[in-house]
């Protein structure tokens, strides 16, 4: 790492000398001029070319080699090659190490190059898309995205992607609005509204106007804040404020708007999409890091052994070697000095024992990881058929890390949810609708859960405007609406009037067979466009029950009630905001003025009149039930206004909104003054539809001791409701802590208060079952079979992005982290992409745990790159998260299988592989250490050179590869049904310093037995002719044979899951050894090259002697029987969970379909605990939209009567 830091420092110094990268740091803001390319080029703004690849043609080889040399073993092998290149030190050829090292480096280089080639292809595809750009002649011409410059003016057409961050100058719509889909940015598919500045919208009408546009933007420097933009447009002597409502970001798609003109503000890597992509991080697994450290330790052990042998070499040469100079004189270079001989022998001993760190280890690791990655790619259980999306391992170096995850950081929208809202139930005038008949008749118990059948849906076919995708269970409500029952009609009238939904009527075509709301009489296709999916669900529900929202203008709304049109004059829109938590409209029809209001139950109940008293209690009971079911609720209320009352209020409102001081506060007070004494109509219950299997997946992951943080940009109420519906939060929790504050002191005080409260509860319940607490070193959790359903279980923490900004400051971050780790669930809402990454970094920095981040949008990229493992949800919501991720698939539920099956298997396999690999190499190499004790410490090798070269490649590599790719202790179904099997990997119990030391000891003992048992038998051996045997050759062949057989038999003992390939590789390796040996020492090779193959008949002599077979059987028994006995005793006395599951003595006691309680798949009614009340209010409407629709640009243009109904509105498309 020090070398890496030095390299980066040198690179920074070179760049500073060259003047690269310094301009942007000097800038305080951007000054961008439209239609002035010379100015913009002089300012050094980047073009729109993007580059996410790591290498280019010139940097690929040096940069990749530099990265690979950060691995300690590679440096060790380079050092080894240097030593081998000195002939006085060793007779070994440097090619014996250089060739395999080159192969390893080349293989890794090819893999990295292939991965980077994919990024190059993606970059090329994006950079070569085309857009319409205004040229010097005032004509729009097609240009590639990469050629667009900051300051250019572009035209974007409907359904086209935005190529850069642009200031909207003009739109085709007379409403002055444009609609965009931001799925690529935040994973949300509901449309967002943007608008150009009124001055540019009303002035710019033609391409000539655009060519004459000489505006200048002064704005903040590029940043990754998707929700904020600050700048001013200087134009025509005016200084106009520009904010996020006027900016359309790269990656958005223009929807339902024929065209817009945009002024490019940020291009290429300055765009907010690319700023959120984060920097690529070179990720390494824990086992990889551990192996790197162990390699350093082994190198240290090797140095110690070689030093010992060198010292003994000096002693032996000084006392004994001098006497043999008559037979073998010392070379002149030794200068008659035993010390020089010992010094020169030290690197020779390094070469003799160099196989302690074999190159084949790293080749095998890469092959195993590649094989495990292919198994993930090919797993049909991770394939999502609906959109033909398989799982993809985009990073092949982290498979075993998937088996060690302790913290998951998840986005919400598009990751946990489908971003689809469904109107499920409602309460009208104290009566609950939406239940099946079985639920109405009585409570269904858990024993009846699986026997409950899906009730029939309501038939809406008689309604020509009905949405065929809308499902409802209660026919009684449909009958009430058809019969004109007043309370039901008024309930849905409110839903059809009080909203900000836009409607578009499309003409039927031959390509369209059926669109929701098709009206055959007028050839109209009603299509709703809602910025809030909640509002879309509510208006769609009203439409299906016969109260249809048909069109709107800035001053009117038209609805149809059971086929009869009603036109309401829109007098005012009291826009939604997060403080009031409600929205109201004031409408007039036939001189009757009505205020309709919808909002949070806790707020609406405080505003109700005494007339609502009879239905308040039953409605509250229904709200509690809805909340317990994880549904999002809204209360509906109304009141009639007199003409005088409205006129007085309108005057106050006009004064408040034109006030120059405290305008927002005054408007708020005026809103509240009329929103009182309301009459309760009822409540709605909307399901924020989770992806299939999310609650089950979260429950299983939680039982595997994995804690989930939900980091979302959604509102607090929305996030909390999803927490309940996904089982992240439960009703039997002790408390849900909500941290709120506008300053550091308040936030810090809240954190400390909740920490004290938690400690008090834990102290009071000291004798109760242990509360779930997961700290830095605490991985215990209450077994689910021991948890009583009435026992309160754990805590949860909810914090908003505003408060999180203070909680992440150095003064509070440790206390915040301590509280978060002590909670069972953590939800961070309204967080920015940067805050998501900071939360991940906080846990990574302070907790020795492996983290995983999962998301689907560009706002999740920083988080994905910050975590140890990044997972992208691939689908219709864009590809930015997938491109940045290490793994990708289509549904959150697949994460359960990825971790609990593939992750656990990969960690288990890799741990077994490493333990075995080090064992077999210690046994193989240390035999040479014992051998040198008997050869005058002369750095001689016992084994034949050919055996040394192929031992790791041909005799022992394939069995261990098969185990590392295919072995398993339990099958996938048992891995999923017993999540506790995952826990050992989190604590790294299967491969660590302790297990390494045990394998070192095992290898040392095996090497001792391998050497001394055959040595004792062969020492006095004579041939059949009565002559002394060639001890060196025969002894080497004998030990080699026994070694190969023992390590392969040990592999057989270590294999848990036998396939034909295991049999083929294990027994085949032994057979191949004998074939190889008989061939190597055959007369044919001897006659072919006597100098290369001098030891003719060594195999025949060795394997034909009784001494070999005696040594073989004794050594095998002594080496293997203790292992068998130890494992048998451990399984009997201390069986692991895996042992119990394999033997069938472990029973999983969890409910198989626990999540059905919350998903309501079988429509089971759940009642809240006695006395419980939790508001389930959630509404994703952004503030300001209502006012925009009601009074926006139309009044400024003097076109207050212009229609908002797209079909009837005049368009400016022809002007362009």
Layout of helices and strands:
Elements: H1 2-18, H2 23-26, E1 30-33, H3 37-42, H4 60-68, H5 72-84, H6 95-127, E2 130-134, E3 140-144, E4 153-157, E5 165-171, E6 178-181, H7 183-186, E7 191-194, H8 198-203, H9 207-211, E8 216-219, E9 231-235, E10 238-242, E11 247-248, E12 253-255, E13 259-266, H10 272-275, H11 286-319, H12 338-352, H13 360-377, E14 392-393, E15 405-410, E16 417-428, E17 431-433, H14 437-441, H15 475-482, H16 486-497, E18 502-507, E19 518-519, E20 524-529, H17 533-544, E21 547-553, E22 556-561, E23 564-574, E24 582-589, E25 592-599, H18 601-604, H19 613-628, E26 632-641, H20 643-657, H21 663-674, E27 679-690, H22 694-703, E28 707-711, H23 716-725, E29 735-739, H24 744-764, E30 795-800, H25 801-807, H26 813-822, E31 825-829, H27 833-846, E32 850-855, H28 861-866, E33 869-873, H29 880-884, E34 887-889, H30 894-932, H31 945-955, H32 957-966, H33 972-977, H34 983-986, H35 993-1018, H36 1031-1054, H37 1060-1080, H38 1083-1088, H39 1098-1103, H40 1106-1133, H41 1137-1143, H42 1156-1159, H43 1185-1191, H44 1193-1197
Parallel strand pairs: 15-28, 15-32, 28-31, 29-30, 30-31, 32-33, 33-34
Antiparallel strand pairs: 1-8, 2-3, 2-4, 4-13, 5-11, 5-13, 6-7, 6-12, 8-9, 9-10, 14-34, 16-17, 16-27, 18-20, 19-20, 21-22, 22-23, 23-24, 24-25, 25-26, 26-27
Helix pairs in contact: 4-6, 5-6, 11-12, 11-30, 13-30, 13-32, 16-17, 20-21, 22-30, 24-25, 24-26, 30-32, 30-35, 30-36, 32-37, 35-36, 35-40, 36-37, 36-40
Domain P-type ATPase C-terminal: 882-1136
Enzyme class: translocase
GO molecular function: ATP binding; ATP hydrolysis activity; ATPase-coupled intramembrane lipid transporter activity; magnesium ion binding
